[in-house]
Amino acid sequence: MNERFIKAIEGFSKASKEQKLDYVASLLSNPTQAKADFKGFWHSDSSTQQRLDEFSENTLTNFAFPFGVVPNLLLNNHLYMVPMVIEESSVVAAASKSAKFWSDKGGFHAEIVDAVKIGQVHFIWNGRADILKLHFPELKRLLFENTTHITSNMQQRGGGILDVELVDMRTEEPGYFQLKARFNTCDSMGANFINSCLEEFAQILKDWLQDAPHFEPNEREAHVIMSILSNYTPECLVRTWVQCPISDLGVHEGMDAETFAWKFQKAVRVAEIDVHRATTHNKGIFNGIDAVVLATGNDFRAVEACGHTYAARNGRYQSLTKLDLSNGMFTYTLEVPMALGVVGGLTTLHPMVVYALELLGKPSAEELMCIAACTGLANNFGALRSLTTTGIQKGHMKMHLLNILNHFHATDAEKAAAVEHFKQHKVSFNSVRELLESWRQAPTP
Ligand code: MEV
């Protein structure tokens, strides 16, 4: 390993941005060029750049990802222009193609099953559990009453703490209990609200055990291990689906509608049975969901973690989609939990997030859940349609062509000529290289 990567550096976080950049650039092969390139991604408006810098720590520059759109996505009878931030070629194209395919078949449908979020105080307490359970209603009242300074604003917006239960976990770990709370955080993702409530709950619990007359001296201490929201929110759930008579599916690459539906059903079934396929199947769903979640300034790691846990809720990791072919109808449904927000967080701070939300008509958090889920279904439908007909590579490599051309530093003229050429030929890394080499040996394509 190169020595410069193993030298520890003291006080890096206290250095100025310029000093950090100098230091990091000095680790690279061409420090002057690297520094100029890092700076090349700075926003032209210094106050915007400062805001972007302050989203994170030790920020040196911005990292550019494509911001694209899916036009004409028909969802619940509304047409949306859906913003997607994603680095992978063909994802936006696949979602757009699915949006077009379903646009004359009623479009996509979506509904919120529920929008409840969860948080827990995990604590160890070695006392008489029956007495704790007996007097828990008294603690519960205090948990609600003594957190109004945190909850009153949320309550005015129609949300707040919905319920708190005491969960006895002693069969798993000696003395282990939880305060498990359910929250409605309205249009915010709610992480700060929930965590603030939980940390207050922990203190209220400790104070109550100290003071309440029901406990013996050796029962007065709760060891609070942690207070934190759960990113697993199975009750914050959206359902989205497409539906049409099987015969309306039409002919796909020479395959009649019935054969296509049969093959599609088998593909979904494989993703129910086989964990390797289920993972890739669901990854394709998250291609769409994550891209919308990122564009709208939400936490895609939380959404992914939650979705994958939900996919394993029956004790086995399975497809998040289900296909029903009964009564001659093709009904394809995705059910996925996700906690999204349209207020707070980055929603007013990131300039592109502001535009993304405006483009979507300033949706509520629930509407955004529907849009993100439906984009995930659009991507998954597109992937399965390709996989069960032409195979994925035909379309994928066509979309990837520009990346390959850029890899070989193709000029604009070479790119235009190559795009024409590959309308008739199969794209591969080698075929692009060979074509460029042949042109470059005998210039002008
Ligand atoms: C690629 O990003 C996603 C797919 O692999 C999804 C799938 O196989 O269903 C095409």
In short:
This protein has 445 residues and is α+β, with helices and mostly antiparallel strands. The chain has 15 helices and 10 strands. Helix 1 packs across helix 2, helix 8 packs across helix 9 and helix 13 packs antiparallel against helix 14.
Q: Categorize the overall geometry.
A: globular
Radius of gyration: 27 Å
User: What top-tier CATH class of the largest domain fits best?
Assistant: Alpha Beta
| Distinct ligand kinds | (R)-mevalonate
Give the averaged pLDDT, no decimals. Answer: 95
Arrangement of strands in the largest sheet: 3-8-10-9
Judging by the overall fold, what is the CATH architecture of the largest domain? Alpha-Beta Complex
Percentage of residues in helical conformation? 40-55%
* Helix count from the secondary structure assignment: 15
Strand content: 15-25%
The span between the termini is 43 Å
Q: What is the structural class?
A: alpha+beta
